[in-house]
Structure formats: C-alpha cells, structure tokens
Amino acid sequence: MARSLRIAIVMNPFARKRLVGDHAHALASELLGRGHTVRGFGAPPGAIPRSGSMPTVDGGVAPDEGLGLLGYRPDLILAYDSLSPAAWHSARMASRLGAALVLVEGGQPALGRPLAGLKHFVGRRIWGRGVRRNTAAVVALDPVAKQDVVGRGFSESLVTVDRGGVDLTRFRPGLTSEIPARHGVRGRIILHLGRIEPGRGLELLVSAFAATVGRRDDWSLVFAGEGGASGHLRVTADRLGIGAHVHWIGKPRGEELPGLMGVSTLMVTPAESDDVSSSKILRAMASGLPVLAADVLRLEGLVGHDETGLVVASGDRNEWIAALQTASGAPERRKRWGLRARAIAEEQHGWPAATERLENILLRAAERREREREPDGVARTESA
Known about the structure:
The protein is α/β, with parallel strands linked by helices. It has 2 domains: 6-165 and 350-371, Rossmann fold (3-Layer(aba) Sandwich), CATH 3.40.50; 179-347, Glycogen Phosphorylase B (Rossmann fold). The chain has 13 helices and 14 strands. The longest helix is centred in the C-terminal third of the chain and has 21 residues, at 351-371. The radius of gyration is 23 Å and the shape is elongated. The two termini are 35 Å apart. Mean pLDDT is 88; it is low at 55-65 and 379-384.
C-alpha cells in the first residue's frame, strides 16, 4: 500500500465549478478510498469529500470544523489555478509548514472574460514568482494548460499533462432520454454540446450538415447549449433548407446529460480555437459515443483517428463534409468506434486509473520536499 498523506485541497472560491469543482470532488473521493487524509479549503461546505475525525501530529484527535492550513498541518497542498490568490496563499503556507505544493492548472483562456484577465495580470505581476519558487509539481489538465504554465515561467520538467477522469458509472452506454421526443427530434442524432457562440465552427457545421445528411428525415443536428449565435444559425439553417432537421434544446441539466449522450449517434466538436472544453469528449467516450473533433491543441490526443471517431481539420468545410459523409454512412465503423471509446475510457480515464496517476505525482512531490528539508527536520525558510 502507498504511503498515506495528509492532503489539503485548496480551491479558488471564484473559479468556475466546471473547471475545478468536479475534478476536486472526484479526486478527493478517490484519495480517501486509497487511505489518505483529505481536507478541502476555499470550497463551499460539502463540495469536497473529507475524512472524519483526524489524528493530530501529537496523537490526539482534531475537531472536524474550523481547521485552517496551519492547524491541519498537511504533508501536501494541492491547489487549483497557479495565478489565483488561493495558489499564492498555498505557496506561503507550504513554505511555512514545509509541505509540498502541487498545482492543478486548467488553462482556461482569459479572452472575453475581463475578471479572468485581471486575475492573470495581478497573479503574474504580484505573486507569480513566489508560487513558482514553492511549487514541487504542476498537473496540467490539457496541452494548452501546459503551454500556459510553461509560458508563466514554470520549468517544463515540473509539468505533467493529465486530463483527470470521468465517472464511468454515470456516463455509460445504453442510457435513454426523453429529451429528443420532447423537442420533436427524429432519427439519428448528431450532437453538439456547449456554448453557441461565434468562433466555434458552428456555421461551418450547419453548412456541412446541409451538404451531407441534413435533408434526410433519419438524421437530426441537435445543439445542446445556449449563446448569442443561435439566432444567426437558425437563419442559416432555414436558408439552406434544413431548418426542420436542426434542433435547439438549450443547456441540459447535469442529470440529463448522460441520457442525451446515450441516445446520440455522433458528437461533433468543430472548434476553431482552444476556447473549448475537453471534458465533454471524455464523457462521450465513457458513453460509447463516437466523436468528430477539430484538430485544435486543447483536444490533442483525445480522439483516436478512425479508432474512437475522426480528427478533422479545424475550419475546413470540405474536411467536415467528408467526415460527416464517412461517419453517417458507416454504421459498423461507428459501432467499432463506440466500443473502442468505452474500452479506452475504462482503461485510462476512469477516476480510479486517473487518481492512481495523480497519486504517484503527489507521492513523488512529498518525497522530494522531504529530501529538501534540513537534517534536523525543519523546513528551509523561503519567502513567498
């Protein structure tokens, strides 16, 4: 059995739940199951699973509530978002306590998000150097996140790309949904999941759908999401004569998403930039749903070309027409893609497998931090 660590998970209270909350919650649950002691900081009550009564360093039992990082005295601090105040506080506490600091970076772009841009500016200028100096390892959730943290001055040798995990019980093949019937959707479903905004390749997708199966009664294009471009896309679909086969169902609730993926035939992500989430592809894989994905950096390596779907040139209408023609006309190939996607999800992307990889990073970071301590067991003093 691996060594048991006392782990503090520190979240940025202002981070979007999509980026931090699901990852932290699932990781904490798995770490608890692997024998570690876990406490969450900066998160709403109940957001991060936690240990019960906790032994203190002197052999007593600490109260369940009210422990700050100084009272908890973790072996390792796991903090999200290297430019956040939470990471800065974690770096200072890691230095003071002699704990290892591991950062999780999601690499979400600041473009079009003024508050995120301000946070990035302040983080870089005020506390970025102190965070870098006290960090033992960085887990980047995708290649863009790695690119970002290396660009901020972190040594590339400290950064590991690991996309986290997916709930294989919640997302699985064979689920059903009433959403298509509720919205009058007929036939096989090509699903786009996410924001309906300019710059996401959606007009190209509608055009490629119109040029392939868009006029057939046995195929539908379904947009599951919200955004300001939906009106323009409706007009485009009507102009191309496929308005009856393009459906707008809004943003599905979290509990509806597994069933919607379960009844879909293909998922499409025609991104034209890296302002796109990769977690939806992990969920599609777990659902046995083949994916046609653009070849942008954030999605790199997620879809195996002609293994779990197709990788398509971003922004190339002819390539998307060819991909939709190939995928729609090959039911046996789609079946093979879906089976392989589920198998890879089980082998590599379930939370037990993902946590084992992350646990190894945490253990190495803790051991490296211990080796940096003075012989008398007192951590070196570092200014944060």
